[in-house]
Design a protein that fits this description.
2 copies of one chain form a homodimer. By secondary structure, chain A is an alpha/beta fold. Chain A folds into 2 domains: about 90 residues, Rossmann fold (3-Layer(aba) Sandwich), CATH 3.40.50.10860; about 120 residues, NAD(P)-binding Rossmann-like Domain (Rossmann fold, 3-Layer(aba) Sandwich). Chain A has 10 helices and 11 strands. In chain A, strands 1-11-8-7-5-6 form a 6-stranded parallel sheet. The first copy, chain A, has a 3-stranded parallel sheet with strand order 3-2-4, sandwiched between helices. In chain A, strand 9 and strand 10 form a beta hairpin. In chain A, helix 6 crosses helix 10. Chain A is globular, with a radius of gyration of 19 Å. Chain A starts with a strand and ends with a helix. At the A-B interface, helix 5, helix 7 and strand 6 of A face helix 5, helix 7 and strand 6 of B. Strand 6 of chain A pairs antiparallel with strand 6 of chain B.
């Protein structure tokens, strides 16, 4: 039976550190504040927003919801982002994506100040992830994967890590975080010839495919640590990860459950970034 | 006997395309111009500068050497960079590095406009390499590796590519270029446990270690394509790559020689970037 690497204790540990830093800021009269910019009313966004608001409250940060109608013009959204950039009482900005089709994602990303980009969508943030320095922040979900490994004492140095997926939200940034932890990192994707052969020889597998049962018994080996970033809906209509848990879990050494794994850590990282942003903006 | 993937034909092909574009710019009264900022008088810099100036002349671009003394202040260098950013007659800027120790590399990199950053040292350029878009340029040597593979018809899609080295100049950017070509990419480094095991199973090996004989017969397999980015000095005082050529060449399918390989393509890419920058700045 694999060890279940649950997200809650990781989130609690990040939360504890974050709460103390938020308190220190409040003692200086600074209330770390996160603006959540939501266009329209997608269920997944509302769900995430509710969790983020709750987490902010629990950790001593303030959440400010900025709601725009589905048919908002690009110009109005850009103006909103510009105003948040300029507002010294707002330290972090999360913009829910994907945006409606009539709005240019690239222009919105470019409009956000990297200093407030607490979910790592700007070029400034992504350059920092790539170079290992910089003014922005790592995408929260990618960092949540690394936080879980760190929390449970999984030493990446010298290990083979295989990342399934090459998105800018997870695959690419998490590969850089693993590389920074001295893993030998392989990035796999839809064009990979024999995926199972790659994943089987890894010590650490991060799956961010977003398809039910894309990690099966055939893909894994004894002793592995699996981080499952997938959020899918299974045949029973319940939330499930990329891994076929019933098949994979008896083989590997440890795996993050879905739900209750990476997803639980993401908002803690988001609030931590907001507090960090507030600190940087008020040195 | 391996096919020798020589750089000269690749450079000639890039040069031919670049020369035509430079001509078109000149017909519009725009002379694509590269500023080469050199602090001090290191042999390797002077050697590269001479090649770059020659290549510019051959392809219809202008090279402007900006020479500063070894003890130039950081402020003076930053002022020079700022002036080049503002100068509309300069389209590309190459700054020789490493800079003297009393100058902050990070501040100089941050001072350069990504639009003129034809050797990919700014965060703007590196974000573009990471995201696959953007305002800057890929580091020339990394791109030269990809140009060689493209020129000789090495299809990366679905292939296993192993990159030895994770620098921002070569290893990391070349890994992104290979990923963009749909290779399954593994980045190895000093912390990799069994390097030879990783490289032996690759279809394409890019070595950017910078140490003589860091790629031996033990590291390679039949059928492989090897791109050797190393520039080292051998026991006879001659230039040599990372690969032990005598041992590796009989085994692999193809390999870039040193000298005469990647190094020959780099300045062609540099001039191509300068012309591209001039086009972007004069739409």
């Amino acid at each position: 039976m694999a060890e279940l690497l649950k997200g809650a204790p990781v989130a609690a540990a990040i939360g504890e550190r974050t709460r103390k830093r938020a308190e220190a800021l409040r003692a200086r009269g600074i209330v770390p504040t996160l603006a959540l910019v939501r266009v329209g009313a997608r269920d997944a966004d509302i769900y995430y927003e509710r969790n983020a608001v709750k987490r902010c409250a629990a950790l001593g940060a303030e959440a400010r919801s900025v709601l725009l109608p589905e048919d908002v013009t690009e110009a109005a959204l850009l103006e909103t982002v510009g105003a948040l950039n300029e507002d010294p009482s707002v330290h972090g900005v999360l913009i829910f994506r994907p945006l409606p089709r009539h709005i240019s994602d690239a222009r919105v990303r470019a409009a956000l100040s990297p200093e407030k980009d607490v979910d790592g969508i700007t070029d400034g943030s992504l350059a920092g992830v790539f170079t290992g320095s910089g003014r922005g922040f790592c995408p929260c979900t990618a960092q949540a994967c690394a936080e879980i490994l760190d929390h449970y004492g999984v030493d990446c140095a010298g290990k083979r890590a295989v990342v399934m997926g090459r998105s800018l939200v997870i695959g690419k940034p998490v590969s850089q975080l693993l590389l920074a932890r001295n893993a030998t990192v392989t990035v796999c994707h839809t064009g990979t010839r024999d995926l199972a052969e790659e994943t089987r020889r890894a010590d650490i597998v991060v799956t961010a495919v977003g398809r039910l049962h894309s990690l099966t018994a055939d893909h894994v080996s004894p002793g592995q640590v699996v981080v499952d970033v997938g959020i899918n809906t299974n045949a029973e209509g319940k939330m499930a990860g990329d891994a076929d848990l019933a098949a994979v879990e008896p083989i590997v050494a440890a795996i993050t459950p879905v739900p209750g794994g990476v997803g639980n850590v993401t908002t803690a990282v988001l609030v931590c970034h907001t507090v960090e942003a507030a600190e940087r903006q008020n040195p």
